[in-house]
Every structure is written in C-alpha cells, then in structure tokens.
Structure prediction request, 344 residues.
Amino acid sequence: MDDLKFGTRNKRGDWAPNQPAETAPLFAFPLRLMAILKWLPHYFFPWNTIFAASAVAYWAWVIPPVETMQTLDIGWIAWLYAVNAICVLLFYGAFEVHLYVLKRQENRFKYNGKFPSEQKNKAFWFERQNVDNMLRTFLSGVTIWTAIEAAMLWAFANGYAPWLSFAEHPWTLALVALVVPIIHEFHFFCIHRLIHTPFLYKWVHSVHHNSVNPSPWSSLSMHPVEHLLYLGTAFYHLILPSNPILMLYQLHYAGFGAIPGHVGFDKVEIGRGKLIDSHAYAHYLHHKYFEVNYGDALIPLDKWFGTWHDGSAEGEAQMQERYRRRKEKLAARKARLEVGEAAE
Prediction:
C-alpha cells in the first residue's frame, strides 16, 4: 500500500495526511443532513460496534450472577481482573505485535517515523517506553478499571443504580446506548482540561504525556489519579436510566477505546489493500503539541473553546497565535508585579 497517495512524509520520516482532521458534523450548525448521513456509519463501525459487542460478551460469559455481585467478594473481583487483564493483553497486544513488533506495514501511515523501541528515555521506568507503559497499564490501569467495574456491578445488583430491562424499556436504553460515545467525549474533554492545569499536569498528567510518540501500550499508561478520573466515566450510569450492559459499554469505550487514538498510525492495513482508519490524528497532535485537541472531535468542544488544531498550516498558525497572546499576557502580568514590588 502506497501511503503517499493519502499523505506526505517529511525528511525525518514523519507522515501526515493530506486532509486535515475534521470534527464530526453531528453538532455543526446549521445542520448538514447529507453530511451527517454520510458520516453516520463511522459512528458505529468499526470501533463502537467492537466495544458494544465486547460489553454484551462480558455480560453473557464473564459477569457473575446478580446474587454473587450483591456482596463484594475477592473471588469474583479477582476473576474480573484476570479477564480484563487477558483481554487488554490480547487487544492491545494485537496492535503492538502487528504494528510495532513484526512491523508488518513498516512506517506506512505512521505519524512519527521513529519507533519507541529505537530510543531510550530516562522519563520511563527502566528507560523503556513499552516496559513503562505496560507496567502502568496492568499495575494501575486494569486494577482501577476492575475496581470501578466491580463497584458499579455491585451498585446495580443492590438497587443503587437505575436498572432498566431491555424488554420493558427498549427505546430508552437504545437512546442511552447511542449517547455513550457522546458521554465519553464530554467527560474526557472536561477531565482532560482539568488535568492540564499546572499542578495536576506536573504531578498527574505528565506521566501520560511522557509518551510523545505514542504506541498501543501508551493508551492506558497513566497516573492512578488519571486512571480514576478517566475510567470514572462509568459513574454516569449511577444516575442515568441504564443497564449493566450499557455501563460495561461505557467502561469498554474508555478502556479498549483508548487504543485507536494511540496506535500512532493513521490507517491500519488489514489484509491485501484493506485499510481501517484509526481517526488518531487529532489526538496525535495533542501528544505532539500538548495544548490542543483536548477532545476527540466527536463534539467540536475544542473549536468552541479555541483549542482546535487540524494539522494544517492554518491550524499551526492559529496555535502559534494562541501561544503568542498567552506569552504577552504572562509578560504583562510579570511587568505589573515588578512595578508593584518597586513601588513598595
């Protein structure tokens, strides 16, 4: 597959798509009906369908009986941890092996031309990005994921969360299922802006941003506080009219859904001549520039708050202009402080 039909590569080997990143047309005004209809299949396939199917599979084959979940017991919680760990290992590992170990598509469609394994960095445990990212994923990420999952299932089993049946409330639950990605986007943008405040960035979010050149294992490589905030998206189902399967879908959308934004490739080659879009470009630009694209472009929150970067020359100019204005404000504030100190 010739990736230069879809983008360009610079002298460093970094690839960028010809088309700038776009926000979904769902919340564009005035509404563009044809654009929404054309985009709609991408809302479901392939990623959202995969995460929804995994939630159904969990409920069918993994989640214990309701009577068991009424009591928080180490047995069934340890079982959940084991299944979550195995599923993360298989799902994340499949992308890692395909793209980074076997390098089956070499650096075609890869945003950053270098592979993390080629470089040591003291920011990581053992100076290895993959080792660091994997340890953080399993020691903290999957642990907190399982704790939230167990707490929510316990809440449903004991009547502390509104549990509607699909047989009696099909349309209500269908609506909740449809907005699961929107809930995630809103939650992610809010907590992401929060952890980019100076104090929380230094002590919490910088762990995730050590992976400037993200790879699959970077997806859930976070500080424990960020894991709690990020995976806490499941807690919305304590107040929504919902169902445990939809709560699992919400949790899987966050846990497994972190992969597409961190694979480091714009497209994944599947078979001969078949491509799957990762839709990772907007989030890759966040890892590259840090202060843009706090959301995933489903809701145009970054456009509304002036932090959108689409990867184009115009987007770069807008970002540099934001930096310039901020530096001017900081310089002016510093000057006022110095004048005040001199007057004293």
Q: What stands out?
A: Residues 27-305 form one domain. The chain has a mean pLDDT of 95. DSSP finds twelve helices and four strands in the chain.
